Amino acid sequence: MNIEGVALYYLRMPLVSPFETSFGRSDTRDCILIEIRADGLTGFGECAADYDPGYSSETAGTSWYILQEFLIPLLLGKSFSHPTDFQGAFDQVRGHLMAKAGLEMALWDLLGKAEGRSLRQLLGGMRDKVDVGVSVGIQASPQALVSTVEGYIAKGYRRIKLKIKPGRDLLETQAVRLAFPDMRLQVDANSAYTLESAQALLPLDELGLLLIEQPLYEDDLLDHSRLQAQFSTPICLDESITSPRHARQALEMKACKVINIKAGRVGGLSQGLAIHDLCHERGVPVWCGGMLETGVGRASNLALASLPGFTLPGDISASDRYYLQDITDERFILNPDSTIDVPSSPGLGVTIDPAALERFTINQAVHTSR
Ligand code: OSB
Ligand code: MG
Q: Whose CA is nearest to atom 1 of ligand 1?
């Protein structure tokens, strides 16, 4: 792949309904669509960082800067034989994992298009559809939450994740458990507790949850291991795991029993693959997290989730759970068995709708090698 040019599109997409987490509430989602031209082909990638630094320190704005100032200049004019070469080439840029992952995704798309193989085939995925669930934001009251969950169950979702935060945790989760005794249910705190305040969550251990996601701060591996010792429900880490090294160390410290893999958070699909392999060897279940992606990132998530170690349902919902209008021609729909089909066309297997792209683009930039 001889990289000839890179175009960036800063997108602001209206959400179907506001999404509230422990770190804030939002009506829109920002992201950067990355278009790379190489050998007459065009590949797309999505940088998952959002407008605000609530989920992680990385934002769409920091990615916009790092991509143009450092990553794209390193990429232009270079030749890559495989996207896994990319990791080493960008070692000199510390951090900025979502920016790197967005570029790497476009290289995978290009490779797939050049070889006529789907991303699923390139990664070694074995399923043609994957189990999915829905991540439900904080609602006005426990009753409102139960009725929102009911709506998703009516649409066919068979695994529900509830966003929680201090003071909006026990009553909410208990109400949903009472209404749906057999539903596969899990919660996500997005780093909102300390080891001390998380003591309030101990009653959750009686509710038969699949897992409790990221209760403590992202750099709190040690305290997560102390908390895990207090719970029989598995703790799952999201924000804390930013590399295969961290995944290994978290498992060795017994800081979690499950890992959420997001290619964006770990610097790209090749790193996600490495974490998958490590967990698979050790019999540790993983699942594919989501970042409210457009159809581009969703296609990537579906391919990743088709790998054999992804034994828990992913946060990969149907397009209509997020966007009335997406930037891809393809819309992903929920099958009656709470699965979504993995794209099978070359690369990511999606095509961009130019009118939709134009509609949501609020800034753009082009870089060429000459
Ligand atoms: O913590 O998993 C998270 C969305 C944005 C940022 C972080 C998270 C989430 C979600 C939604 O939970 C997952 C999705 O449906 O894309
Ligand atoms: Mg999470």
A: 190
Sheet of strand 41-47: strand arrangement:
41-47, 24-38, 3-21, 361-368
Residue list, ligand 1 pocket, CB within 6 Å: 55, 135, 188, 190, 238, 289-292, 315, 317
Residue closest by Cα to atom 5 of ligand 1: 291
Task: Report the nearest atom of ligand 1 relative to the CA of 289.
Answer: 2
CA dist., res. 165 & res. 89, Å (int)? 39
pLDDT tens per residue, range 44-95: 999 999 999 999 999 999 999 999 999 999 999 888 888 888 888 888 999 9
DSSP 8-state assignment for residue 258: E
Tokens linked to 100: 């790197």
CA 109 to CA 111: how far, in whole Å?
Answer: 6
How many CB atoms sit inside 10 A of residue 296's CB? Answer: 25
Low-confidence ranges of the chain (pLDDT < 70): 370
262 catalytic residue (yes or no): yes
Instruction: State the Cα angle at 244 between 241 and 250, rounded to 5°.
Output: 50
**161 carries an active-site annotation:** no
* pTM summary value: 0.98
Distance CA 115, CA 113 (A): 6
Q: What is the largest CA-CA distance in the chain?
A: 63
Residues 6 or more apart from 159 whose CB is under 8 A from it? Answer: 131, 132, 133, 134, 183, 184, 185, 186, 210, 313, 338
